[in-house]
Amino acid sequence: MPKILTAALCAALLSVVALGSASANEGMWTFDNFPSAEVKSSLGVDIDPQWLARVRGAAVRLSTGCSASVVSPDGLVFSNAHCVRECAQQLSPPKMDYVANGFSAARRADEGLCPGMQAEILTAISDVTPTVQAATAEKTGQAFIKARDAAIAVIEQHACAGREAKFRCQVISLYDGGRYSLYTYRKYSDVRLVMVPEAQTAFFGGDPDNFNFPRYDLDFSFVRLYENGKAVATPDHLHWSFAAPKPGEPTFVAGNPGSTDRLLTAEQLESRRDLALPWTLLLFSEVRGRLIRFSEESPEHARMADFLLFALENSFKAFYGQEKALVNPALIAAKRRADQELRARIAADPKLADTIGDPWSDIAKIQTDYAALMMPYGFEETRAGLGSHLFGYARALVRAAAERAKPNSERLPEYTDSRLPLLEKDVLDPAPVYPELEQLTLEFWLSKLREYLTADAPATRTFLGQDSPQTLSAALAKSRLGDAAYRKQLWDGGPSAVKASNDPMIRFVLATDEASRAVRKEYEQRVSGPTDRASEAIAKARFTVYGTSTYPDATFSLRISFGKVDGWTDNGVAVQPFTYFSGLWKRATGQSPFDLASRWQHAEDRVNPATVFDFTTTNDIIGGNSGSPVIDAQGNVIGAAFDSNIYGLGGDFGYDARLNRTVAVSTAAISEALRHVYDQPALLQELSAR
Amino acid sequence: MPKILTAALCAALLSVVALGSASANEGMWTFDNFPSAEVKSSLGVDIDPQWLARVRGAAVRLSTGCSASVVSPDGLVFSNAHCVRECAQQLSPPKMDYVANGFSAARRADEGLCPGMQAEILTAISDVTPTVQAATAEKTGQAFIKARDAAIAVIEQHACAGREAKFRCQVISLYDGGRYSLYTYRKYSDVRLVMVPEAQTAFFGGDPDNFNFPRYDLDFSFVRLYENGKAVATPDHLHWSFAAPKPGEPTFVAGNPGSTDRLLTAEQLESRRDLALPWTLLLFSEVRGRLIRFSEESPEHARMADFLLFALENSFKAFYGQEKALVNPALIAAKRRADQELRARIAADPKLADTIGDPWSDIAKIQTDYAALMMPYGFEETRAGLGSHLFGYARALVRAAAERAKPNSERLPEYTDSRLPLLEKDVLDPAPVYPELEQLTLEFWLSKLREYLTADAPATRTFLGQDSPQTLSAALAKSRLGDAAYRKQLWDGGPSAVKASNDPMIRFVLATDEASRAVRKEYEQRVSGPTDRASEAIAKARFTVYGTSTYPDATFSLRISFGKVDGWTDNGVAVQPFTYFSGLWKRATGQSPFDLASRWQHAEDRVNPATVFDFTTTNDIIGGNSGSPVIDAQGNVIGAAFDSNIYGLGGDFGYDARLNRTVAVSTAAISEALRHVYDQPALLQELSAR
Asked: A171, A335, B23, B678: most buried by Cβ count inside 10 Å?
């Protein structure tokens, strides 16, 4: 079993550093550039535009960071349990834990609103590259960022004008700025939890089994789209397959891979390896330790910290795998050779060379500024609060008040008209806030800010003053921003209400926001502006030399990948692509996280032991794809992707068809469980509707 | 102020990768190879053999990992507060916290035994290289390790035969096995705490100020040597200076630097950078998080975890600095050039080449086995228990019972006759054990063992069985081994008593020790044996090509470094070598760790504000040197080294006279505090005795 990062992983990655063309089954393709011919030749399947349109029309992006699919005519949406884990935690009434015990709405009226969750279905794609690139021509540094963001704000605003209530328009940057596409989404901002199994069942094996296979996780959930208080009619849904997947069967995964880095230069990968990832891993490790101890203090603390700890451990393992891949010197050496090959081909064409310039050297030089600014920018801006909800609310309220007063195209991009509705929903949706957990998070953030920026740094004085992280976090955790009504009062009240607030967190953000904005400006001027400019030039070079028959890095926008049900050979051992119900009871030890939920302890005789439980496919996915439907050649949904195998951790930098595998839970297993373990005839009936 | 690792640090390190000869003030010299001529030429001071003998006779090694010096005729020993921090914690009676409040024995009878602490004064050095190397000739792998350890056991046993009660004989490996020296120590196993100031005062600025300067730490302590219940007469003591150090004044530091890596090959440094340090930092980060939260749960928990957390944070910062130094690619590139220069010179001499072979390639090849075995060896053997005292006791009892039954030269080296007395003291000295803290530590260890070795690894099954880390650690924390009387019963009872014990921790170690010994054997066979063999060959090559006028890597054995009182220039800013009492109140904010102990809050008018508080010198030191006397040219003690500046963190790999600085607390400041703040006329009188 592929339990650790082995030499095979390293060898694998060497062959897959992104070059001009993709290997078999590689790629997270946009729907307007689907490689039909390649699919036909490698899988023998004809995928026509109607098939693609139908899948696109049922593929869902969840604003909380997952993927999903519509699977009934009544707005029923199929995703992973871990995609609604935070929602289940937030909906749990006092002394009830829907994460631990699962949740199932007996009637429609019991389906509960998931705070901050918006479902989005892509309806149109159009190319806006010329408009964006014209706006940024000749611009550099922060001016480049501002011009680009302004152009995007205008495009998004105009495209959705008059239909903002039901649509979201978003410009997606693809190929590192080589192309900009306008994606129009039908949006549903009232998404309610229908059913999720116990965390023990959905995440059996817990962190130790995460990213491993064989696997026994029933990682599914259902939510439902609502509008005007009623379930949305969704005639364009995928059909639910009750049959098990078959070995070698072609599979398609439609979803929203979050982020890959297959187009970065060698120097950017080095910064990732030496700066960004080590720092992230250390931060995550320490706060993980604090949260584990916090969780052990009481069942109530465990419930409060559940989602944060789950998400943290999942990310930690993924980043750890990335770092392991990057410290293999051959990976970056292969990337450097690929960079050099492209540079040589450009140099051979003087006219092209004149157009492109030397963006690789530009990026290499920027790394010094990146090293200097990474931590200040992180602690003061992108990672400020380090997950504190109170801080997040306060920053959104303070900044929205300031930004909304400006013309749309002059705002920070997260506050433009096209983005405000989702932000407003996020700020105003009622969601529980736990002061004890807030204090822990804030204290951790402030103490690391002081540690890494040093006690004598001006930023430390700005954020901490004469306080200690302990005293300041205790004061800030007393904020009233956990109260949604108070947030609404400040949101509606605008700048004057915000400035008049005596809430400690609002006062804190007001006092520190200038410093945060200043470091952001400096970062854009010295790092992200010049980087994005250079990346755009490299993308142009790549298009010119290799053509456009490739896929862009993942950007949490809709993609489709193709592959087939298949295991792999791990250090000479064949790993079968299936697990079966029967294996679950064999693996259970009775101790967490290898213990069974009570309803499963005696279910062995009720379910068919030969049912395919989880399965693996060759599809190319990455985090963000969680909940994506796994679709057969006929367009039926046969599973939900919930993980990759251990080799997928290096998938950030490349894909190897021999080893990278998607891990999915089968609809066959879910159907069997709904029927014999969860007693859900109504859901089964709804899934059978055509 | 040098608060972060800057480009200057990186630049500095490039010039100091250990080559054949040392730069000015570089070196941790053995007392039998003191560079008198170099000292004369660089400092203008004549150091004669009498001076060296007198300093050596007063220099103390504390078995708990620090250095110190005898400073009165009545066995009074001067060291750092942080060197007795664990002792103060252990001596604290219920509801009393000697770490937080400080401790001062009103009478001799109140001086309290520091558990496990032995003071050792070096009395003789002799060369035993031929004997050891003859025993290992032609041997490889684990056979090499066994032959070497057996030879050492015999040498140590014979050298101290008949005088074991008062002497300790230890063979010290120098120059990575290029030389073996027999060090004979007069030992004192009854060391009692006399005085230590409050942690707030000794460690003002805490972790944020650690490794920084300007600094305001009164990091001193006094312990006393006892024998047969009486203070030991120590006519050979250093004279205490009441005068402040002067700019440019020559300084000597005599102490026990713990470990440096200036002679490692480039490939070994790469393994350090990519494997050992990242893993260590991640482990330390997470357990740090758990301990911080544990400490915040109650004042009692804070007291229990105090020393562990302090030591952990200190090590974390040091390792973090090492990693920062190693990710600078120029450092390892410089090391590789140095390796290649030496290899070229060997290759040019066919006869020498034939003798030396190619140990660099051997070491490069070993790194694959190191990568595979580092974690199993760490979790199951060297880091087993990850600091649990109960585990440590159990392993010592189980193994001592088994090993003592074997002939001396066939035992694991930590159980040979020469080492048993200190081990026995360590096991039998009464010291408090905190079950809550034990459980935390054990749970952490077991959960990380499972995480990094994977849930399905045979080792995980051996150590964890069907348990979870939570359940098993809870069971093990119920061990009776916290009771010194029970430990004595098992120690005296030998194998039969150990085997008959129903103590859960003893049973656990009995059940897992075979696995631990097996992985150790494999590691010695595939990693440490071949490495030590190759390192010995490189050392021989280095001696042949560069001569012996250099110093060996640090090995926690007595060394002396020379230098002078001096500041440095930090990114163009001159840092003065002194702080003064007056600065303490300026830096205090009232919030931990920048708050003053109550007796200091109103002491500003009682002490001379112009007294030199802390100071910096150019001496080359490393961890283990803590507590080392800083000595003037006349042989008087003028301070105690307690830290290095931030550049010293890269000192593991090299020394740069422009930037590396020792940080010491002045005897002038201590004298002033004893007189006007701590009211200690008796101590002052004792320090004045000649």
From this structure: A335
